[in-house]
Each structure stands twice: as C-alpha cells, then as structure tokens.
Amino acid sequence: MWVVLQAVAGVVVAAAVGVVVRLQTRHAHSALQPFFRFRSLPLVERTVLSGPGASVRTVRFRFALDTPGLPNFDLGRGDHLKLRWGDAVFLKPRSYSPLVGGLGGSDPSHRTFDLVVKIYPRDGASQWLDTVRVGETVQMSGPFPPLAEMNVRNGGRNINVVCFGVGITEAIAVLVAELERQNVEKVTMLWANRNRDDVVLGPAVESLAQRYPDRLTVRYAFSRAAGGDFKGRVDAAMLATAFDLADGGGAGGRARMAVVDTPRFLVVGTKAMKNETWTNLAHLGYQRIDHELLQKKGAMGIVQGLVNVLVGGSLRAHM
Question: In 3-state terms, what secondary structure has residue 58?
C-alpha cells in the first residue's frame, strides 16, 4: 500500500511541478526566477568589509535588479540564490544568502541586493567572483527553495543561533524575523570568528541589539584571539554557557516538540560546522530532530504545498 502511495505522490509532484513552472514562466515578472532559469545581473558596487588583520578578505558585491522590489525573498526562512561561476557547463552553481531591503547595510530601495562573500584562497567560486568588475554581469537564479513548504518553522519562544563567520548574512535575517514575532521572548546568538577583524556586518548586528536590548543577546567567540565573550573553538561547554543550557535539558524526546519554552536552535556555517555543533548540542540533550528551528518537510509536505498552489494558494503561503 505504501509503495502505491509513494508512486501516486511522485506522479502528483511531477504533474504539479510542471504546472507551477509553466505558470511562473508565463506570469511572473521577477528579475530572478525560481527553479533553473538564470538571469544576467550587473555588478554595480564592490566594497571590502573585513579589517586589515582579517584571516580572509570579505567583500560586499552589490547587484542591480531589473525589476525593483523583486524577487520576493523570505530571508527569515533561509532563502538563497544560485550563482553560475567559471565554466558554467561543468561547475556546480554556488549558493549564497543575499541581503536586501536595508538588511545588513543593503539598499533599502529594493533596487539592488548584496552578496557578502569571503574570498578563500582555494575556493574557486569566491576567487572567480572576486575577478568580476563593476559593470560586468553574473548569472544567478532564485530564490531557493522554490517551495516555501519545504522549510517549516519549529515554533518556540526561546531562540538560539550559532553563527560561524560570514554566515551572519543568513543569520541576521533570521534574527530580524524572530524578533518581529511578538511571541518570541528571547533570542541569543553565539557568533564565532577567528578574530575581531574577521567580523563583518558588526554595526548592523549591534544596531539590532540596541533596538531590542531586552530580547536580543549577542555573544562573541574568537578562536585565535582574546577580546570576546569566549576564546577557542565552539564546543559543548561553550554552548551550554552561551545559551544558559542545563545539561540534559533537552531530554524528553519528540513529546516536547509542542512545548513553546523548549529552546530552538539554528546553526549557520559549513556542513561540517553544523554537524559538529549539533553533535555537541546532542551531548547536552538537545537533539536536532526535535530542536532545530527551521526544518524541512517530507515528500508529502511538498505535495501538500503544490496542491495549495494549484487551488489558488501562493508559493510562499502557509509559512
């Protein structure tokens, strides 16, 4: 029976995706299209954000949109763009989290958006992007994921964010989205960098903390320098102190999912950083399956979202 249901779901997904793609191709007016349509967008400005002592140079790339105000990013849900680089035929597009609408120092007019990128010596995509000059174009597509129903928020009033380095471009959007929720009482971010000169968007984060002094706490961790709230690599002990976690406080399993006071966590960084952080949180009793703030729905959830679209809903409804 389950095999039959899976087959039916597959047929529904395939048919619905085809309809959605046709509808978007025919009616959408966004400068960027979801799915696999790429547009050439011009670079209008580039600025180095990192300090002179930074371990890796960080650059803000500002791109113009041909339709101001579009696409309709929902950055609080982790929307991102895909960028073609180098030999676009053989190289996989790279995903980046944009800054728009004044967020993180971006243009509030919605006529442009920013990509804040660390230029790693051995990273082909960032090295290639660093060669792009003002006036030249870059091919991008998005926002992704194309279906909002693929990401759902695991509700709670106590939100903890672990952010590694330039991951702040994604984390700051989540901070803003959570602080705008009236039922969220406390948001804490542990921000890990190698040293203070590696910190980018610091003024934007501090401004946000000043706007919500009783609800937002930002704690800094530097792995190679003093001067922050913590020194060293992020480990279980640091997490427990930064977020005031009681050892084993997450015990109770999935039954605690409905408890709004149960801490929720978002980890922003490389896949390895995320996995290591969730391993440390698990040692404290906070399992990812129960405590992750933004979770992906299964196949049936995607089918439900597609059905909503076909009956007149929105791709970004039911968030």
Answer: strand
pLDDT at 311 exceeding the cut of 50? no
161 and 292 in contact (C-beta within 8 Å)?
Answer: no
Q: Evaluate if residue 102 carries a pLDDT over 50.
A: yes
CA angle 261, 262, 266 (to 5 degrees): 120
Rounded average pLDDT over 142-166: 79
Overall pTM > 0.70: yes
> Quick one: tokens of 130?
């660093």
Give me the pLDDT at residue 226, please: 86
Residue 274, classed as helix, strand or coil, is: helix
Angstrom distance (rounded) from CA 68 to CA 79:
18
Q: For residue 304, which amino acid is it?
A: Q
- Give residues with Cβ within 8 angstroms of 138, minimum separation 6: 40, 41, 43, 63, 83, 84, 85, 129, 132
